Amino acid sequence: MEVDTASDNTSLDDKTEDYCENPTRDALTEGIMSLLKPTVDQLDERIRATRISQIELRQQIDSLTEELLKINESLQCPLELDAYVTKLVNAKRKVIVVSNILQKTQERLNKIHQAVEKETNKRKALLDRSSMYHSATIKPETDELFPAISSTSGTPQ
Q: pLDDT tens track of the chain, all 157 residues?
């Protein structure tokens, strides 16, 4: 039963004294703190600097907004330019669409031109072949057909 009694002895009060007086644990804690403290301090300083720069940026944006409002009031422009800007943007879009259509049409026309040229070359080649065949089969002096046959037989047909 003594073994069970020893395992039941897990009171926090009994262990508190051990935490305070453990030199190894204290040294380890100080070592970890000495490693982490510079990083944490540096991070904290950078966060402070970032927050300060954000505040300065917000102040500059506010002052710029005030200056722009003053300039806008001093100009007292009677025309509303936003409508004209919108019209220009819409016109630009339309020009781009038309340009794309024209480009695609030009590409199609180039393809058609190439097909026509190819077909013309085929027909020209066929005509050249037929004229060569025609000139080879008709004797120019006598206009006889098949001169090769008539010259081999010795008698004109």
A: 444 555 555 555 555 555 557 788 888 888 888 888 888 888 888 888 888 888 888 888 888 888 888 887 787 766 677 777 888 888 888 888 888 888 888 988 888 989 999 998 888 888 888 777 767 665 555 545 455 544 444 444 4
Q: Residue 150 burial by CB count (10 A; 0-12/13-18/19+): exposed, middle or buried?
A: middle
The DSSP secondary structure of 61-72, one letter per residue, reads HHHHHHHHHHHH
Every domain of the chain and the residues it spans: 22-76, 79-135
| Amino acid present at 48 | R
- Between vectors from CA 70 to CA 65 and to CA 73, what angle results, nearest 5°? 125
pTM: 0.35
Kindly tell me the sign of the dihedral angle through the C-alpha atoms of 125, 131, 132, 137.
positive
Q: What Rg value do the Cα atoms of the chain yield, rounded?
A: 50
